[in-house]
Design goal:
Chain lengths: 234, 284
Amino acid sequence: MLKVRNLSTGYDGVPVIFDVSFEVREGEMVSIVGSNGAGKTTILKTISGLLKPFSGEIEFLDKRIDRMPAHEIVKLGIAHVPEGRHVFGKMTVRDNLLLGAYTLESDTDIKKVLEEVYEIFPRLKERENQKAETLSGGEQQMLAIARGLMSRPKLLLVDEMSLGLMPILVDKVLDILKEISRRGMTILLVEQKVQEALEMADRGYVLQTGRIVAEGTGKELLESDLVKKAYMGM
Amino acid sequence: MLLQIILSGILVGFVYSLVAVGLTLIWGVMDIINFAHGDFLMVSMYTVFWLYTLLRLDPLASLPIAALVTFVLSFLTYKLIIKRVINAPGLTALLATFGLSLFIRNFAQYLWTPNYRFITTSLVTDKKLEMGSVIIGIPQLVAALGSIMMTFLVVWFIKNTKTGRAIQAAAQSRDTAKLMGINTEKIYAVTFGISGACVGVAGALLATFFPIYPESGALYSLLAFVIVALGGFGNIAGALYGGVLIGLSEALGGFFLGTQFKYAIVFLIYLLVLQFRPKGLFGW
Ligand SMILES: Nc1ncnc2c1ncn2[C@@H]1O[C@H](COP(=O)(O)OP(=O)(O)OP(=O)(O)O)[C@@H](O)[C@H]1O
Ligand SMILES: [Mg+2]
């Protein structure tokens, strides 16, 4: 579904991602794990079009998207839940969700997907008319994911769901992600929490200072020496 | 007499509010001060004037046309000028709008001479409303009511329409707005357009009782800037209150100190507020 080939990119001409290749197949949950500053966010931004590649190709559903503006990539079916949530704090929960559905044309579609999303996140329905900035951190993360689902994406990019959440909440948002995946959504998750991310993923990639240094099923990676040594302190 | 002064101050204040709402909207969405804002107002006045002179259209009838003209003018200002400088560092965008302002003024002078023009026989000209000792000019009353309506129309649009929500989103975070599938370039241009329509409406309403000349807009640029600073940059409600406040202080200052000092009072208030509440009266 998504193919990234020999991608190099960075900021202001300074590269931070070097020759990265990976793919995500339909229905999969794929994790890219790596520590602080490895370049996970940078990769997601490049896929969703906020950053342009220096070189390499990104293909989504057999279409080159690496030169497309971000708003058109959304229309093709990629939703990006950004790191740090970035909900629209001054707007209500409902307005945030409606913005998520910005690319949908018909009002009946929007209503329907809003109901679906409220079914997954009943908490958000209760808070419908509350300003997003007044939600708790966990609720804001839910809102960010829900907003991502509103565009009816085929591929969901999720950046660091667990950031700044209490462990109990981390489990909760990860459960929700699993549920969304079980319903058939293709998901690319990037995470610092290596163990959790690899446990739930079908496949994973390990990113170190802008390069992919290992790949395999979640299980293989968890059992590999590299992951054990570098990320689990074993 | 004092009541009269207060009333006329409030009425003109609502027109100031509308002009300031247009200016603060652009700041709120893309952090740009448009120095040519008042000059769009002048263009609107001339639009109304020529439609009146050549086609005998009443200013109130040509108001939508004038608003459309300034919408397009302001929209194109984004597309042709601002877009190229919006990401440039520091004062580039500011200087660009300053240059545009000078250009529009001089071009107007070239086309239409610096002479004062007046619209002397409109529907509202010389009509008055007398309530005891208080006399209100109908042109001023219509200008105030029209400005209030346009202000609320703009607020309603931003709060309740899809494009309005996109404008709010782009104002809060450009990148996140893009991730929603919003074409931020288009939204910026539309925001500029709406801002232009605000002064377009204001200009058409003012044209029945203000002289029309190439520098007509200069004062409005300046006052709108003061109001936006008072109300808090990007704060639409703040611009609304700020406009009325400035209208009032101008009228009262003129009354108590003499008309030649009325703007001195306005700027004194501005300086004082900046000293004690640098984010504006309503901007916390
Ligand atoms: N806007 C930016 N401008 C310049 N350099 C940046 C910018 N954003 C990130 N970088 C640099 O790019 C590198 C990769 O950053 P990135 O945010 O992609 O890492 P990450 O893996 O997402 O880290 P984290 O787990 O902390 O979120 C870092 O060295 C960072 O300093
Ligand atoms: Mg990151």
